[in-house]
Specification:
Layout: E1 3-7, H1 13-22, E2 26-30, H2 34-42, E3 46-47, H3 51-55, E4 60-63, H4 68-77, E5 89-92, H5 98-110, E6 114-117, E7 120-121, H6 123-129, E8 132-137, H7 140-150, E9 154-161, H8 165-193, H9 198-206, H10 213-217, H11 240-257, H12 262-279
Parallel strand pairs: 1-2, 1-4, 2-3, 4-5, 5-6, 8-9
Antiparallel strand pairs: 7-8
Helix pairs in contact: 1-2, 1-6, 4-5, 8-11, 8-12, 11-12
Organism: Bordetella genomosp. 13
GO molecular function, one term: NADP binding
InterPro entries: 3-OH-isobutyrate_DH-rel_CS, 6-PGluconate_DH-like_C_sf, 6PGD_dom2, 6PGDH_NADP-bd, HIBADH, HIBADH-like_NADP-bd, HIBADH-related, NAD(P)-bd_dom_sf
């Protein structure tokens, strides 16, 4: 089994790292939150005092960080790349700007390092179950090296293209997800306002032309579906501010390509309003509250 350094143990990173421990890999972990590190050490991982210490001796380095600035700071400003043996592999699973991914990949290549950007889709439930979808940017050779590790954390692996392509595809997916969740919430709120049972309406939509991932697997209305954030007062899951970040990345990509994303921009504004209302740390399905619904 591989010796792996895993840096970034948030809502997604921690369960991903746990699956690698369960698969028998030798894991060294680092995070700024001690409680997150303890979860992994209790499962058998080794804690490092710093990111630089974590990568010492690692065959594979995996990062799962919040935003572009964190990835660039770690790899470029803190010069983590210089600490990694050039024969090793780097996998960044963060969702960041494509240009940031390309910049870090170019710096890695200059040092002789193989690197892929491999953002994920599937949410915290997929991370825990090991059924994530990895959307990879990088060379065929780097992906071939990364695949055995990614397969321990996910079910689907797509090669989107060269460095940065994984981020472009992920941004497109999350823009659509934000639009779908806002639209689903609006439809459910309209039905409830007119006397419908939200579960009955969700069942109808799931078997009709409006069916989508939100109604079937991640319903935003409390009590309709067990074990989703909506039924846990919107705790955990994928935060509003993270969705807002991804919608901002979509807007930046659209500006750079002179592309039109009117629904994406509308969704970004809706999530911005929701975040400004003090909901930034809640799961993004809490956008239903913007339509007047208050959880019991």
């Amino acid at each position: 089994m591989s010796s792996i350094a895993f840096i970034g143990l948030g809502n997604m990173g921690a369960p991903m790292a746990l699956n690698l421990v369960k698969a028998g890999h030798h894991l060294t972990v680092y995070d700024l939150v001690p409680a997150a590190v303890r979860t992994l050490t209790d499962a058998g991982a080794r804690a490092a005092a710093s990111a630089h210490e974590a990568v010492d001796g690692a065959e594979v380095v995996i990062t799962m960080l919040p935003a572009s600035k964190h990835v660039e700071s770690l790899y470029l400003e803190d010069d983590l790349l210089a600490r990694i043996d050039p024969s090793k592999l780097v996998i960044d699973c963060s969702t960041i700007a494509p240009d940031s991914a390309r910049k870090v990949a170019a710096a890695a290549q200059a040092r002789g390092l193989a690197m892929v950007d491999a953002p994920v889709s599937g949410g915290t439930a997929g991370a825990a179950a090991g059924t994530l979808t990895f959307i990879v940017g990088g060379t065929d050779e780097a992906l071939a090296r990364a695949r055995p590790v990614l397969e321990q954390m996910g079910k689907n692996i797509f090669h989107a293209g060269p460095s940065g392509a994984g981020q472009v595809a992920k941004i497109c997916n999350n823009m659509l997800l934000g639009i779908l969740m806002a639209g689903t919430s609006e439809a459910l709120a309209l039905g409830v306002a007119n006397g419908l049972d939200p579960k009955v309406l969700s069942d109808i939509i799931a078997k009709s032309s409006g069916r989508n991932w939100a109604t079937e697997l991640y319903n935003p209305w409390p009590g309709v579906m067990p074990n989703v954030p909506a039924s846990k007062d919107y705790a955990g899951g994928f935060g509003v501010d993270l969705m807002l970040k991804d919608l901002g990345l979509a807007a930046e990509a659209a500006l750079a390509a002179r592309a039109a994303v009117p629904l994406g921009e509308l969704a970004r504004n809706l999530y911005a309003l929701h975040s400004q209302g003090g909901n930034g740390k809640l799961d993004f399905s809490s956008i239903v509250r913007l339509y007047g619904h208050k959880a019991p």
